[in-house]
């Protein structure tokens, strides 16, 4: 079986690190590149985080590209402290002073366009952060989306329940205009792992403890970066996510990555047009599902709803048994 060619576009926080490790552990994935975007942290921190994850897994040969430092339209944005100020829990002290030299010189958007053009209809693009790099790619090359094999997005919400504003999910809220552009102009098969999808297919906290107890470098790394992070605290989540969905361990970005690796992971989805709301103080950044065709759009997306949680858990567990050499 030929390997699936994958580019991951990421704002590398702790859950992105989990998703990247999942792709690294998958025998059917060939990693073309990691492109970085602002989001969970400043893009400079994101780049360092990606390099750190690749180093832990002994996969430093995968090229890493620096991309957008801010949203498409807004002048500036504040970064989330969900995973700490640096995106990886603020526990890493031995920063690499040579990290800039390990990045590719080409801009992430340019690299994305080039790689997809070189492997037309073969590349699966997995977007784990704000969609700024993707929006810029279609502006620079309007044919970019049709050259993709498919697109997997972690982001958006389908019920008006937000995690950063009252009604919007973080990745879309950080750059609503880019999310709007991508969902309007990317006509390739598009699969959306929304916030609700992740939360409604949670793993148990007992699973999380077992996950981190594995005797492998990746597991030890994950244990370190989650050790002081409130987002991985059962107590903190009782006043946050648990109010809507009940208790559980939710590695958000890993759900989109798992769907890319193994389509049978997704048991149910809704196929319909979607649109991102750009107006309003409450609903800006929210994703709306058009199940009655009121928007008269020409294309639909697959909004994932039900996951094979047992199979997903096995992929997550395997992802921290690294380094593993292919």
UniProtKB/TrEMBL annotation:
<dbReference type="InterPro" id="IPR036452">
    <property type="entry name" value="Ribo_hydro-like"/>
</dbReference>
<dbReference type="Pfam" id="PF01156">
    <property type="entry name" value="IU_nuc_hydro"/>
</dbReference>
<comment type="similarity">
    <text>Belongs to the IUNH family.</text>
</comment>
<dbReference type="InterPro" id="IPR052775">
    <property type="entry name" value="IUN_hydrolase"/>
</dbReference>
<protein>
    <submittedName>
        <fullName>Si:ch211-201h21.5</fullName>
    </submittedName>
</protein>
<feature type="domain" description="Inosine/uridine-preferring nucleoside hydrolase">
    <location>
        <begin position="6"/>
        <end position="312"/>
    </location>
</feature>
<dbReference type="InterPro" id="IPR001910">
    <property type="entry name" value="Inosine/uridine_hydrolase_dom"/>
</dbReference>
<dbReference type="GO" id="GO:0016799">
    <property type="term" value="F:hydrolase activity, hydrolyzing N-glycosyl compounds"/>
</dbReference>
């Amino acid at each position: 079986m030929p390997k699936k060619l994958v580019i991951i576009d990421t704002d590398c926080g702790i859950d992105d690190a989990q998703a990247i490790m999942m792709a690294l552990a998958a025998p059917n994935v060939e990693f073309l590149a990691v492109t970085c975007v602002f989001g969970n942290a400043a893009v400079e921190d994101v780049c360092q985080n990606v390099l750190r994850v690749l180093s832990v897994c002994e996969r430093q040969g995968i090229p890493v590209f620096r991309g957008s430092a801010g949203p498409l339209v807004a002048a500036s944005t504040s970064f989330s402290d969900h995973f700490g100020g640096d995106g990886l829990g603020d526990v890493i002290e031995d920063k690499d002073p040579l990290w800039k030299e390990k990045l590719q010189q080409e801009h992430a958007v340019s690299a994305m366009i080039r790689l997809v053009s070189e492997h037309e209809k073969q590349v699966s693009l997995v977007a784990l952060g704000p969609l700024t790099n993707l929006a810029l790619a279609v502006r620079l090359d309007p044919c970019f989306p049709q050259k993709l094999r498919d697109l997997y997005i972690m982001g958006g919400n389908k019920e008006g329940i937000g995690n950063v504003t009252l009604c919007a999910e973080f990745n879309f809220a950080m750059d609503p205009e880019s999310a709007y552009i991508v969902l309007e102009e990317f006509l390739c098969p598009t699969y959306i792992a929304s916030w609700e999808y992740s939360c409604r297919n949670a793993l148990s906290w007992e699973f999380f403890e077992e996950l981190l107890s594995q005797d492998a470098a990746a597991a030890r790394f994950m244990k370190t970066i989650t050790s002081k992070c409130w987002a991985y605290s059962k107590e903190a989540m009782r006043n946050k996510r648990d109010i809507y969905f009940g208790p559980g361990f939710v590695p958000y970005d890993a759900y989109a990555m798992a769907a890319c690796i193994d389509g049978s992971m997704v048991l149910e989805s809704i196929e319909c047009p979607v649109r991102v709301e750009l107006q309003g103080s409450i609903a800006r950044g929210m994703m709306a599902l058009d199940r009655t065709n009121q928007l008269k759009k020409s294309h639909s997306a697959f909004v994932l709803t039900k996951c094979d949680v047992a199979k997903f858990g096995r992929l997550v567990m395997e992802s921290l048994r690294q380094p593993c050499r292919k």
